[in-house]
Structure to design on (364 residues):
């Protein structure tokens, strides 16, 4: 049942190109020119604001999608974790689309948050891996992520499928609102078509990542840095690492480092920098150089051009294929997951069933 893998988690990481292909086929028109949603269709001209709520890894998928919805579709997005949102009595204006993201569709806090917005928001949409779940049933619309059963407690393929569906949704929003021309939507969809192949290339770095991970396993604290849509991924990378390897890890926005966390950096601190060669690259590199100047050991994950420009003096580097900007968070999820996985394997922890954690959190 693990299809030759030692753990469900590694099987599920490896399945990502396949399940993402399925999600792409499901949401793309046959001519590849537009995004098609199952009935009932969502008309994004009806909303002037989106609120996205979830827990844990699903929350980081929402946080990433905020960048896409705002940059691509020009619609303002608020994101929050469900356990805060449900109690903070947020005013919900009537032209709000409320989006809930949940692998299980049964997470107690997310379901309670959904119920809070029922009757207040214009529409409630759930993005889930479980079409029969409570959240799917209580929503106006529900979109499947088509990840297939995820057994490992640490979410991997559900995360990347959530991201894929949310990116397609952002493109649909851009299409409806005229924020992108038909031609530009088509170009973005062509890029998405290349994603499964790029993910396969990223997966080929597994052995190189295992070598670095064997050294990370000796650390007691690890930092993850990213800017733009790579910031939520830094948070996700840190969560994944701590939940299965039990090593303390924190994700920070690169620009926030000098406001406090840099005090943590010494020669024992590995700092994982997630930085494709995009328009924010130089800013991130300057933050990276600040930690190197304080003795920090940097693992730079970037593409060919990024490594050429900035790998001088770094401790380790991992090369990702070059990708269009919008796809980077989905692609870079792979090395983040593999780092957590191989570090946990090196430490000998229970990868698929980490201590104190449950797959579905149906109590508050
Ligand atoms: C982390 C992880 C959790 C879940 C969270 C929400 O790897 O799996 O953080 O993402 O408990 O669960 P769902 O998506 O079922 O609502």
């Amino acid at each position: 049942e693990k299809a030759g893998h030692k753990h469900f988690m590694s099987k599920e990481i490896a399945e990502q190109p396949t399940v993402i292909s399925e999600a792409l086929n499901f949401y793309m028109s046959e001519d590849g020119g537009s995004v098609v949603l199952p009935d009932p269709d969502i008309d994004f001209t009806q909303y002037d604001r989106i609120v996205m709520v979830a827990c844990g890894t699903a929350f980081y998928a929402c946080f990433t999608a905020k960048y896409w919805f705002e940059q691509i579709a020009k619609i303002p997005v608020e994101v929050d974790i469900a356990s805060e949102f449900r109690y903070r009595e947020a005013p919900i204006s009537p032209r709000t689309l409320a989006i809930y993201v949940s692998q299980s569709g049964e997470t107690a806090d997310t379901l309670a948050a959904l119920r809070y917005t029922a009757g207040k928001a214009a529409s409630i949409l759930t993005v889930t891996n479980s079409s029969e779940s409570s959240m799917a049933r209580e929503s106006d619309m529900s979109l499947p992520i088509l990840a297939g059963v995820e057994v490992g407690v640490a979410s991997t393929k559900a995360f990347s499928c959530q991201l894929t569906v949310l990116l397609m949704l952002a493109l649909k929003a851009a299409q409806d609102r005229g924020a992108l021309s038909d031609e530009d939507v088509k170009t973005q969809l062509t890029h998405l078509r290349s994603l499964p192949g790029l993910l396969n290339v990223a997966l080929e770095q597994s052995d190189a990542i295992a070598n670095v991970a064997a050294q990370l396993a000796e650390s007691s604290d690890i930092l993850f840095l990213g800017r733009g849509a790579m910031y939520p991924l830094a948070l996700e990378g840190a969560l994944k690492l701590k939940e299965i390897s039990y090593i303390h890890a924190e994700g920070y926005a690169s620009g926030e480092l000098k406001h406090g966390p840099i005090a943590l950096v010494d020669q024992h601190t590995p700092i994982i920098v997630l930085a494709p060669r995009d328009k924010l690259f130089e800013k991130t590199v300057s933050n990276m150089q600040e930690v190197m100047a304080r003795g920090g050991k940097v693992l730079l994950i970037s593409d060919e051009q990024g490594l050429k420009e900035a790998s001088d003096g770094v401790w380790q580097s991992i090369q990702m294929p070059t990708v269009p900007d919008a796809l980077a968070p989905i692609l870079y999820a792979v090395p983040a997951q593999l780092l957590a996985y191989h570090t946990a394997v090196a430490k000998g922890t229970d990868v698929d069933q980490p201590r104190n954690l449950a797959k579905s959190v149906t109590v508050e």
Residues 23 and 362 are 27 Å apart (CA to CA). The chain has a mean pLDDT of 96.
